[in-house]
């Protein structure tokens, strides 16, 4: 084949290395698990006022109750990274604050509840508790049930004759597009009024490379192969402020992650929707919890 006309093999090699085929493969995996999938889905960048795209978006109705207009939706926001370099996450034990964190990825019909606080006087005293914590959803959440957390991550790259840990630009190039997509989608969903939506977003990065976790507090530091790692990052700029969670998942592990982590958590909310008719109507402590 002449130099200015690539062969079929060269075309396939170029397309595979670009990551385009990986996006379609990931979309097919998510679609096979019952999600309605869209690739290269557009969203509004609330920071810059421009249109951007997310590699793969998948949405699935988990539960619908016409009687009380309640719907549970799981939506995956996915970026794919066709990178052969291993990702390594450094971790340590969670703090009490980590276990009480309110995820910004989930929308509830009532964002928070007024929980009664014991008081010696007759005046009513209460504290506002987020819906996630009020409903004790952490007990069924794949990340919150873990005692450890990832606090740093890097790529392992070849530098001449040795391997080095590289994190230059990794945090922001990965986190900001996903968080911007999340905030844009949340803004869209909050416009809906027909149903009481429990809308659960799952920002994920699917990697075409190995994932390792290192417990920095262990006496013997050893990289442990993982199918996925959840990473929480605090971001601050003119339009983004808070801690956001992103799941890093290997492509091979993706079917298990969706079926064993995302779907069980979403489905764990169904009994709550069926057990209390006041749950999404009454901000003032429908479950009668007292602190």
In summary, what is this structure?
With 291 residues, the chain is an alpha+beta fold. The chain is 25% helix and 39% strand. Strand 8 and strand 9 form a beta hairpin.
What does this protein look like?
This protein has 7 helices and 14 strands. The protein has one domain. Strand 8 (148-159) and strand 9 form a beta hairpin. The protein is of the alpha+beta class and 291 residues long.
Key structural traits:
7 helices, 291 residues, globular, single chain, five-stranded mixed sheet, alpha+beta
Total strands: 14
Strand content: 35-45%
* Total domain modules: 1
Count every helix, treating DSSP H or I runs of 4 or more residues as helices. 7
Regions with pLDDT < 50 over 5+ consecutive residues? Answer: none
Largest sheet: 7 strands, mixed
What order do the helices and strands come in, and which of them pair?
Blueprint: H1 8-18, H2 20-32, E1 36-45, E2 50-65, E3 70-81, E4 87-93, H3 96-99, E5 106-107, E6 112-116, E7 126-130, H4 131-134, E8 148-159, E9 162-166, H5 170-189, E10 196-207, E11 211-215, E12 224-226, E13 228-236, E14 241-250, H6 254-267, H7 270-275
Parallel strand pairs: 3-10, 4-11, 10-14
Antiparallel strand pairs: 1-2, 2-3, 4-8, 5-10, 6-7, 8-9, 11-12, 13-14
């Amino acid at each position: 084949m002449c130099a200015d006309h690539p062969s079929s093999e060269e075309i396939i090699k170029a397309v595979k290395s670009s990551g385009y085929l990986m996006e379609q493969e990931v979309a097919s995996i998510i679609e096979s698990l019952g999600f309605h999938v869209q690739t290269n889905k557009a969203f509004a960048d609330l920071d810059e006022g421009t249109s951007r795209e997310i590699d793969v978006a998948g949405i699935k109705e988990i539960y619908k109750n016409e009687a009380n207009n309640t719907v549970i939706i799981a939506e995956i926001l996915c970026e794919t990274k066709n990178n052969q370099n291993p990702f390594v996450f450094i971790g340590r034990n969670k703090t009490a604050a980590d276990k009480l964190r309110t995820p910004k990825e989930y929308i509830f019909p009532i964002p928070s509840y007024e929980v009664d606080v014991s008081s010696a006087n007759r005046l009513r005293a209460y504290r506002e508790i987020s819906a996630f914590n009020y409903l004790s959803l952490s007990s069924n959440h794949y990340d919150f049930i873990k005692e450890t957390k990832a606090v740093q991550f890097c790529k392992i790259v070849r530098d001449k004759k040795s391997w080095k840990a590289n994190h230059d630009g990794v945090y922001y190039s990965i986190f900001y597009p996903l968080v911007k997509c999340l905030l844009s989608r949340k803004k869209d969903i909050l416009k809906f009024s027909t149903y009481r939506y429990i809308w659960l977003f799952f920002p994920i990065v699917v990697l075409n490379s190995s994932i390792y976790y290192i417990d920095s507090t262990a006496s013997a530091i050893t990289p442990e192969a993982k199918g996925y790692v959840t990473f929480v990052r605090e971001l601050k700029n003119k339009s983004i402020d808070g801690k956001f969670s992103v799941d890093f998942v290997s492509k091979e592990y993706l079917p298990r992650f969706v079926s064993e982590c995302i779907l069980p958590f979403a489905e764990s909310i169904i009994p709550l929707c069926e057990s209390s008719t006041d749950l999404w109507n009454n901000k003032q402590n429908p479950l009668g919890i007292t602190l």
